[in-house]
Amino acid sequence: MDTTTLKGLQAPLKAQYREDPTSAVVTLKADGELDGTGIACRVQTATALAEAGLHPATGGDGTQLCSGDMLLEALVACAGVTLRAVATSLGMEVSGQVHAEGDLDFRGTLGVAKDAPVGFRDIRLRFDLESSASEEELATLLKLTERYCVVLQTLRSAPPTEVEMHTSA
Predict the structure, then answer these.
(1) Orientation of helix 150-157 relative to helix 135-148, angle to 10°
(2) In terms of pTM, does the model score above 0.85?
(3) In the chain, what are the domain boundaries?
(4) Sheet containing strand 40-44, strands side by side
(5) Gap between the Cα atoms of 67 and 42, Å rounded
(6) Are 103 and 121 in contact, with CB atoms under 8 Å apart?
(7) I need a labelling partner for 99 at 20 to 30 A (CA). Which of 73, 130, 146, 161 fits?
(8) 157: part of which helix (H) or strand (E)?
(9) Is residue 93 predicted with pLDDT exceeding 70?
(10) Count of alpha carbons within 13 Å of 169, Cβ hemisphere only?
(11) If you average pLDDT over residues 160-169, what whole number do you get?
């Protein structure tokens, strides 16, 4: 996709959102089904059924997806798409790879040490790019990618999150 095509696709959306800000608010959803026989949750993605289970560091056998890995994969996907959209919008040619890694102390998850956090304590996102763009252009690309990457900004801002439980007989 080139700059003109991308701007042509996004221009009517931007105009609509400026005129009617409420139309820009979209609720995304994900649903899972608990596995009745094991410790797993099946999540329907847009293209496949993904089954998440315990990470080997918590007793899993490694045959199921780890939700922590899935979080990092979502970050890589969002950052990669955002970078490509920004580059396209700026008329820059880039290719390469996106990497994310994070550090977990599983003592927290397993309740072994109350002072150990549950969740990632550090996450690192890295772009290994090939481009003939100038250092200044690449700095702008990175700045705008960080600014507009939904997953990255969500991790950084930690929005209020509600948890509910409903039961049936």
Answers:
(1) 60
(2) yes
(3) 29-65, 66-157
(4) 32-34, 40-44, 49-53
(5) 11
(6) yes
(7) 161
(8) helix 150-157
(9) yes
(10) 0
(11) 93
Rounded-to-integer distance, Cα 117 and Cα 119, Å? 6
Burial class (CB in 10 A: 0-12, 13-18, 19+), 92: buried
Please give the pLDDT value at position 36: 67
Q: CA angle, corner 73, sides to 67 and 74, nearest 5?
A: 90
Q: Which helix (DSSP H) or strand (DSSP E) does residue 3 occupy?
A: helix 3-19
Amino acid identity, position 137? E
Tell me the angle at which helices 135-148 and 67-90 cross, rounded to the nearest 10 degrees.
130
d(CA 107, CA 115): 9
Average pLDDT, the chain: 95
Q: State the fold for domain 66-157.
A: GMP Synthetase; Chain A, domain 3 (3.30.300)
Q: What is the pLDDT of residues 27-84, one digit of tens each?
A: 999 999 997 678 999 999 989 999 999 999 999 999 999 999 999 999 999 999 999 9
